[in-house]
Design goal:
Blueprint (H helix, E strand, L loop, with lengths): L1 E7 L7 E2 L5 H4 L4 H5 L2 E4 L2 E4 L4 E5 L8 E6 L5 E2 L9 E4 L15 E4 L15 E4 L19 E7 L13 E6 L16 E4 L3 E3 L9 E4 L3 E3 L5 E10 L2 E10 L7 E2 L2 E2 L2 E6 L1
Parallel strand pairs: 1-6, 2-7, 6-8, 8-9, 9-10, 10-11, 11-12, 12-13, 13-15, 14-16, 15-21
Antiparallel strand pairs: 1-5, 2-3, 3-4, 17-18, 18-21, 19-20
């Protein structure tokens, strides 16, 4: 796999919209062509090379291209947007929309990310060594299509509205999650929280699964206890209490049986 390295050389005054930083767009281009790609700072167009030195070489296809971003990326939005293959490594923190509408490939963030990482994601992997902001793996505002495939792993904590309108895929949070986990979730998505959750978990949920290894501060009153189950979840075998809901919502039927969202609480 060929590697293109972007090394920060100038900090923008505003935030940069960097949807051109993907293996799909870099593939087959020379370093000069990559440096000439457009980034938006506010409404102004600027070449990528104004902010980053470009070194290495891109592969002939997205699957054969790896991008490494060195230096400050806290004002860099949309990295990896709609990518279908290849790899991106961000060697620090990143701003909003990392891996938004991603279809394939891998993104590794060695720091933390801001809101809407993995929004509308349908495939691929995102790995975040630090914390994730609000709306991780969620739908774009005004849309009902949240994450539908792929895997997101966060070693730290996650903000609010995790998995909002989630329809598929898996999100694993190694730490704690803020309020509104899995709101409006349906389909067969899976959210695993290794730490604690606050409140409003599974609100208006009509499908999918949520696993909580720690404490749930305020359970939803519209989830009902069903039974205890022994499961292996993300490599951990444990006993869980299964709750089904949100019983205040209308639920679909499958083979004559009502389909509920499920919350599993580890003993």
């Amino acid at each position: 796999m060929n590697t293109v390295t972007l090394t920060s050389k100038a900090k923008p005054e505003l935030f940069l919209e960097a949807d051109n930083i993907t293996p799909d767009i870099f593939a087959g281009k020379t370093n000069e062509q990559i440096a000439a790609l457009t980034l938006y700072e506010g409404s102004a167009k600027h070449p990528l090379g104004e902010y980053y030195d470009v070194s290495g070489s891109a592969g002939p296809t997205a699957a054969e291209t790896r991008i490494v971003i060195k230096g400050d990326a806290t004002r860099l939005k949309y990295v990896g947007m709609k990518m279908t293959g290849g790899e991106i490594s961000i060697e620090g923190n990143a701003d909003m929309y990392v891996g938004a509408w991603m279809k394939g490939g891998k993104i590794q963030v060695k720091g933390s990310v801001d809101a809407f990482a993995g929004t509308g994601m349908t495939g691929g992997e995102i790995s975040i060594d630090g914390d994730a902001g609000n709306y991780l793996g969620a739908a774009y505002r005004g849309d009902w299509r949240g994450m539908r495939g792929g895997v997101i792993r966060v070693k730290g904590n996650a903000g609010s509205d995790l998995g909002y309108f989630m329809n598929g895929g898996t999100i694993v949070v190694g730490g704690n999650a803020d309020v509104h986990v899995g709101t409006h979730a349906e389909g067969n998505g899976k959210i695993i929280i290794k730490g604690n959750a606050k409140s409003k978990v599974g609100g208006q949920m009509v499908g999918g699964e949520i696993y909580i290894f720690g404490d749930l501060e305020v359970p939803m009153p519209t989830f009902e206890y069903r039974k205890d189950v022994e499961l292996e979840v993300d490599g951990t075998k444990a006993k869980f209490a299964l709750f089904e809901g949100d019983t205040a919502e209308r639920h679909p039927k499958r083979k004559g049986e009502t389909v509920f969202g499920k919350i599993y609480m580890k003993y």
